[in-house]
Design brief:
Helix content: 25-40%
CATH class of the largest domain: Alpha Beta
Number of helices: 3
Number of strands: 10
Strand content: 15-25%
Number of domains: 2
CATH topology of the largest domain: tt1808, chain A
Largest sheet: 6 strands, mixed
Radius of gyration: 27 Å
CATH architecture of the largest domain: Alpha-Beta Complex
Structural class: alpha+beta
Length: 228
């Protein structure tokens, strides 16, 4: 009997949670959604969060799920996983990891080796508990330390990194504007809506005053249209 080749399955989930705690989750969302905004107008930049990346066809156990990653030269869109051989063989150029108490040194060493071996150009790690920020950029076949991350601007993203006085991560878009949380965006949108409503009310009040004035003029025998 002819042999039937069993198809290789690339699971969309590794069974692990996206984050170990609420703090880690909030920082992952902050980074991922901020990157979405940076590249919202560029259809050739794919941004993902906690998406399994399979770099080599036929090796489903060889995978990683960066907390956030950016791929240049690939279209936006939904994916169950990032199978590199189906994506013009383009690896993520930039990856982010947000540490939690559950991350062990051996785990982070494996991740570093994976990203270094499979073509990541920039790798950034933020620890919201220890308030530390670390970065690496590619030099040939290796990822080398960024000496000072405070004020560092990513060569590929154009995003500037900083830590505020309390050690919280701050990211700035290429136009200099700060990444915003969902709450801040919502507050700003509500404030803009309130200002717009107030402007409409003022316009209506001005129109009503003008109508009353015109009526008073007509009562005095003056046609408002004749006024200069």
């Amino acid at each position: 009997m002819p042999s039937v080749e069993t198809p290789v399955v690339y699971p969309d989930s590794d069974g692990l949670p996206m984050a170990d705690n609420t703090r880690q989750f909030e920082w992952i969302v902050y980074i991922k959604k901020g990157l979405d905004v940076v590249f919202v107008a560029d259809p050739t930049v794919f941004v993902a969060g906690d998406l399994l990346w399979y770099p080599v066809e036929g090796w489903p156990d060889l995978r990683a799920a960066p907390d956030a990653m950016v791929v240049f030269g690939r279209p936006k869109g939904d994916r169950g996983s990032y199978q590199q051989w189906k994506e013009d063989n383009k690896p993520p150029a930039v990856v982010f990891e947000v540490l939690s108490p559950g991350n062990t040194p051996s785990e982070m060493t494996r991740k570093f080796s994976f990203y270094e071996r499979h073509g990541v150009e920039e790798y950034y790690i933020y620890d919201p508990d220890r308030l530390t920020l670390t970065g690496f950029t590619r030099e040939g076949q290796f990822l080398a330390d960024v000496p000072t991350m405070t004020g560092w601007t990513s060569p590929r993203l154009g995003v500037r990194f900083d830590l505020d006085a309390d050690g919280n991560l701050e990211l700035f878009r290429p136009d200099g504007r700060r990444f915003e949380t969902f709450e801040a965006l919502t507050e700003r949108a509500e404030r803009a809506e309130q200002l717009a409503e107030q402007a409409v009310q003022r316009a209506e009040q001005a129109e009503q005053r003008a109508a009353r004035l015109a009526e008073l003029l007509r009562q005095q025998g003056i046609d408002p249209a004749d006024l200069p």
